[in-house]
Every structure is written in C-alpha cells, then in structure tokens.
Write a structure and sequence with these properties.
The protein has about 475 residues and is of the alpha/beta class. The chain has helices spanning about 5-20, 20-30, 50-70, 80-85, 110-115, 125-130, 155-165, 185-200, 210-220, 225-235, 250-265, 285-295, 305-320, 330-340, 345-360, 365-375, 390-400, 405, 415-430, 435-440, 445-460, 465-479, and strands at about 35-40, 40-45, 75-80, 175-180, 205-210, 240, 270-275, 295-300. The strands form two sheets. Strands 5-6-7-4-8 form a five-stranded parallel beta sheet, sandwiched between helices. A three-stranded mixed beta sheet has the order 1-2-3. The longest helix is centred in the N-terminal third of the chain and has 22 residues, at about 50-70. Bound molecules: adenosine-5'-diphosphate (ADP) and magnesium ion. Magnesium ion binds near residues 186, 187, 242 and 243.
Length: about 475
C-alpha cells in the first residue's frame, strides 16, 4: 500500500466515523482494512462473512460516497472476507466479532450485552443462539432515545407494554402489528422492545428482520426435527419481526404462518412491523392476514415538525458525548426540522453531515453552512399516501352512492361509472397492484380492474367534464 493510499484511507475512515457515529463505526467498520486500489476499484476486507454482508447491504453506498469525497476517481467498492484471502497468516482474535461500544445514546443494557457475546444481543442458550441467531441490534435504538410525539404515542405505549410484560401476565394483544412509512421509527421501536425485554430478563426476545427470518430462521427450522423446533420455540418469549413486507416465497410464508400460529397459540408474544397494514400484504394468504389483523394494529403517522425538532435535539445531545465540541444552534435545528421533512433517516443524515463538516474543517455550525450541507435533503412536500378506503369514500360521496354500492356486484349505470373511477384512481394514486385493487373492490378479478382503468383513461381524453371531475377528486385525495 502506498503512503498516499494509506492517507486517503485514514481520511475515509475519519469521514465514515463522523458520519455514522462512534457506536456504529466501532461495531461495523473498526476492523475493515484497505487491501488495494486498482482502476477506480477500492478493495476492502473484513474478517467475517457476516460483516461483509451487513456492510454490503447497509453501508455500501455510504462507504463509496466517503471514498469519492476523498478520491473522486473511485467508482467501485469491493468487499472481501479476509480469512479467505490470507488465512495462513490470519491470527485468531480474542475480541468479539462485533464489539459494541457502550455509552452514548444507548441504554444501560448495552454493556451487559456487548461483553462476551458475538453479537450485540442475547438470544438464549447456546443451541437457540446458534439455531435462531437474531439480527444485530443498534445500541442506539432504545426506549430512552425514542422521542414521543402525537404520531407515535399509541405505538410507543403498546411497545412499552410488550417489553415490560411478565411471563405470567396474560398476553394483551397478539400480535402487536405496527405499520408506518419509511424512516418513521418502526425499527427503532422494535429494537427498543428487544433491548428492554432482554434487559428485564423475564422473557427472551428475538429480533429478526424478515430477510433473516427467511434465510436464517427458516432454514434452521427445516434442518431440525419437529421436536427440536418446538424446543427452540419454547425458549422464545417474544418474537419480533421487522419489515414483514419483504417476506417472500410460498414455503417461507407457510413457515411463517406455522411459526406465528405456534407462538400465538402457546401464549407467546409476536411483534411485527411493516410498511403497510395487514390487509395490504398482498402475497400473504387470507388466513395469515386475518391472524395478523387480529391483535393490535397501530399506525405511526409522519413525524410532525415539533417531533422532528425534538429528535434532532436529542441527537445532538447524544453526539456531544463523543464530540463535545459539536454544537448546533437552535435556529439551525429549527431550520432542519422545518425543511428536511421526509423522515427520521434524513434527519439523521442532515446532522451527520453537519458533524462531518464540523469535524473535518473545524468550522462552527452556522445556518449558512446548514443550508449548504442539507440542500439536497430538502424535499418538496411528499405526496400523501392515499388509501384505497379514502378513494372509495370520496368517490362515493361525490357520486352520491354508498361505499358498499361500489364494492357490490350491482351493475346499474349509476354505480358502474363511479366504481370505474374509483378503481382508476386506486391504480393511479396508490402503488397497489391490479389483483390487490380487485380484491379491495369486493373481490373482483384483476382483468375487471384493468378494464375499468382503460375505460376511464379512454374517456378522459374526450370528456372534459369527466376529466375535470377526476382532477378535483385527485386533488381532494392528495390534500
Ligand atoms: P423505519 O424502520 O420505520 O424505516 P427507523 O426506526 O429506522 O425507521 O427510523 C429512522 C431513523 O429515525 C432512525 O435513526 C431512528 O432512530 C429515527 N427515529 C424515528 N422516529 C424516532 C423517534 N420517535 N425518536 C427518535 N428517533 C426516531
Ligand atoms: Mg426499518
């Protein structure tokens, strides 16, 4: 490795550390090494396959961006596993595979889990741990760091309740199903339940992403006997599954259904997060959907400006434990809270940039600097997520029919046209597929929906009055 390359690398490391924060950096990047730079490709190595896939799926773009900031000619990052490369010289390390930095932002529980375990969580006895290994947890995502606002009070209360329940308590709502758009705090709440539940020690809490459930959990179950499976499940008090919308494949879903039923019937708690309500999980079959909807379903709304401000404030406080010189004046926080409207992730991104800028240049954070640094995170008001029910309600009102008329099989002209309009709006204003829309309109076939969409598309080209009517409906729905 040449000296300039080494220098760029250490600058990239600094940049990365400033962007992701100390905890994440030491968990994931501390043992990443630079192997080579060739033709715009930077080859980096990490000691385990697990680290490789985690960094690949969560931080690949960030790492590349950090490199490009130092060396614009870099256009690709290649991650490799070190042991495969130089296993003969690799010496076993005594330290854990993933160290958890204790302290800042996390709960008191951090250190307890970070010490001797390979992952920052405990998933039970050795067998259970091996067989049912949970997804890694971010030590910053705890109840202590979760900021309350109007949009998340109910979800938070339910999560707290689940985390604090004792083994002997009757399960109050099962499953607890939390849904919200991207970056609104689902993962944060789910991991908070896991940290808090495991710290209490009453019931073992296992946190899995749907992906992990598919590739780890399910395959582990398949290779075991039914008895071993039951044994393993017996050890889990609370099963937490994140991003359920990613669960795919018929057999995986069958396993999921089986697991869900087995746990719920045994009085174990199940907690689920998804970006949509159970009724919109198109690929799951009706029985699973209704089982999911049979507990408590809570939606978390968008973060209001006040909540965004409080989250930012809390973040700065947490960052200051590692970077005492980092200060963000109130007006800058207000500015970010007002303009970076999208979600919690962008808020975090905005602050990380200010921190990186502040660390790398030594310049104090000012409003001017903030305006420059977060420019691309400012978005025009996101179009509202329109729900099919709202479309049906608004269209029914407009045409003076009832919502059940729209869903019914009646074919009189005064119902057929509004129904077609509603289906057309469902297709153009939501991301729902044709079969899903058909299902939501009284179990119609997707070809019926397609026909309606085409019909209305054809009509609006010639019929000005209809075109205008539809424009007005759209505006009402998107307001
Ligand atoms: P989701 O899983 O819903 O996409 P996350 O839980 O990953 O969202 O949240 C995105 C970011 O926003 C995280 O850094 C999270 O800590 C932060 N965040 C979201 N809601 C809150 C909240 N109420 N309090 C503190 N941080 C929050
Ligand atoms: Mg998430």
């Amino acid at each position: 490795m040449s000296i300039p390359e080494q220098e760029s690398w250490s600058k990239v490391q600094q940049r990365l550390r400033a962007e992701v924060g100390e905890d994440i950096y030491s968990s994931w990047f501390a043992r990443m090494d630079l192997e080579a730079i060739e033709d715009g490709t930077v080859r980096l190595s990490v000691p385990t396959r697990f680290l490789k896939s985690w960094i690949q799926s969560h931080y690949a773009e960030r790492v590349l961006a950090c490199w490009q900031a130092e060396a614009p000619q870099v256009n690709r990052i290649e991650l490799i596993v070190r042991s495969a490369l130089r296993s003969s010289v690799a010496k076993p390390k005594a330290e854990p595979e993933i160290a958890v930095a204790g302290g800042a932002g996390g709960s008191d529980g951090n250190n307890r889990y970070g010490g001797s375990n390979h992952r920052p969580m405990i998933v039970g006895d050795q067998n259970g741990h091996e067989a049912l290994g949970g997804s890694p947890l971010d030590p910053r995502l705890t109840f202590e760091t979760f900021v309350l606002g109007r949009s998340n009070t109910l979800a938070h209360a339910a999560a707290k309740q689940v985390a604090a329940a004792k083994r002997s308590d009757a399960v109050m709502f099962n499953p607890l199903y939390i849904h919200a758009g991207v970056g609104l705090g689902k993962t944060h709440l789910l991991q908070a339940i896991t940290w808090a539940g495991n710290a209490m020690g009453e019931r073992k809490v296992l946190y899995l992403t749907a992906e992990k459930f598919m590739y780890g959990f399910v395959s582990a179950l398949r290779t075991q006997t039914a008895l071993a499976f039951k044994e393993a499940l017996r050890g889990i008090g609370v099963l937490v599954i994140d991003d359920l919308q990613f669960l795919q494949g018929k057999s995986t879903q069958a396993e999921f259904c089986h697991t869900l039923n087995a746990l719920i019937d045994a009085g174990r708690q199940v907690v689920i997060a998804s970006d949509r309500p159970p009724s919109d999980l198109e690929s799951l079959d009706d029985r699973v959907r209704s089982r999911l909807a049979g507990g408590l379903v809570v939606e978390m709304g968008p973060l209001g400006e006040e909540l965004r401000f409080e989250i930012l404030k809390a973040r700065v406080t947490a960052a200051r434990t590692h970077h005492p010189a980092f200060d963000v004046p109130g007006p800058v926080l207000s500015y970010i809270a007002k303009t970076v409207t999208h979600n919690g992730r962008d808020l975090e991104g905005a602050l990380n940039r200010l921190l990186a800028h502040n660390k790398l240049t030594g310049h104090a954070v000012t409003l001017e600097m903030a305006e420059r640094e977060v420019r691309d995170l400012i978005r025009p008001q996101e179009p509202k997520r329109v729900k099919i029910e709202d479309i049906q309600r608004v269209v029914a009102r407009q045409y003076n029919v009832s919502r059940s008329d729209l869903l019914s099989s009646r074919r009189t002209a005064n119902v057929v046209r509004p129904r077609q309009v509603a289906m057309y709006l469902a297709k153009t204003l939501t991301l729902r597929s044709l079969p899903e829309i058909g299902r939501r309109f009284g179990g119609r076939d997707h070809t019926t929906v397609l026909h309606a969409v085409r019909k209305i598309e054809g009509l609006v080209g010639n019929d000005m009055a209809l075109a205008e009517e539809i424009e007005i409906l759209k505006r009402q729905l998107q307001e």
